[in-house]
Amino acid sequence: MRLQSDPRALPAWADSYIGIPFAEVDRGRAGTHCYGLVSLVARERFGLTLPPEPDGSDPHELARNATAFMNAALDFAEIPLGQEAPGDIALLRHGGCASHVGVVIASGWMLHLERATRCLPERLAERLWSRRLVGLYRHPDLASSARVAA
Q1: In angstroms, rounded to a whole number, what is the distance separating the alpha carbons of residues 92 and 38?
Q2: Residue 24 lies in a domain
Q3: For residue 80, what are the domain limits?
Q4: How far apart are CA 16 and CA 137, in angstroms?
Q5: Residue 135's closest CA among 85, 91, 103?
C-alpha cells in the first residue's frame, strides 16, 4: 500500500503539468502563474471553467484578494484538511497574505508553481506549506458530481 507521502502514489495525469514554467501572463502550458495553472487543470482534467481574472487586474493584486475573489465568483465549499480530493484548490499565504493557490492532485498533494520554480508537486503537510495553508476549497460542480478517477 502506498502512503500519502509517497510520490509514487500521485496520479499519472499530473505528470503532464509538472515542469510548466512560471509566467506573469497566463499562456497555458507555455507558461503561467499559480491561478493560471489551477484554471488549466480545472479545465483540462475536470471540465470546469474558473472565473477569469478581472480585466486589467495585476495577477499579484488579484492573488492578494484570492479568498474574496473565490467566494464572490463561485460558491466554493471549504473542505477540512484530510478530506481534500483531486480538483480542490489550496489557498496559501505568500508574502504574509492569502496570495497563492495550488490544485490538489491526490490526498495530501498539490501542484503549484511560483516565480522561481516550474510547476511541481508538493505535500500539503510539508512544514513550509502546512504553515501557509489558509484553506482548501471545492468547486460547486465537483461537490455535487462524481470525481474523475485518478
Answers
A1: 13
A2: yes
A3: 12-143
A4: 23
A5: 91
